[in-house]
Design goal:
Blueprint: E1 5-9, E2 13-14, H1 16-25, E3 30-34, E4 43-44, H2 55-59, H3 68-78
Parallel strand pairs: 1-3, 2-4
Helix pairs in contact: 1-3
């Protein structure tokens, strides 16, 4: 937290829908997702992204279902909002 802004760092390139989901589910009105923190996990796509053939899907290191929910739920679990 910096003031009233929640910062969430992820070690890869998160596709937009994951960051949007975090912002909508965050208990904080101002939440920012910072990517490329502490190394690189490569591309981290949401499940819908696997429906189309793209470079990001061809080279990702994670299977469908791993990135979207896991990232959002993991970050939300770490947020102390009491």
């Amino acid at each position: 937290m910096i003031g009233h802004v929640a910062l969430a760092g992820v070690s890869g390139e998160v596709l937009t829908k994951i960051a949007e989901r975090l912002k909508s589910e965050s208990p904080f009105s101002l939440t920012l997702m910072l990517t490329h923190c502490n190394g690189s996990s490569g591309y981290l796509p949401d499940d819908d992204a696997y429906k189309q053939i793209s470079y990001e899907i061809a080279v990702t290191q994670v299977q469908k279902g791993c990135a979207g929910g896991g990232i959002v739920y993991g970050i939300l679990d770490m947020m102390d909002h009491e």
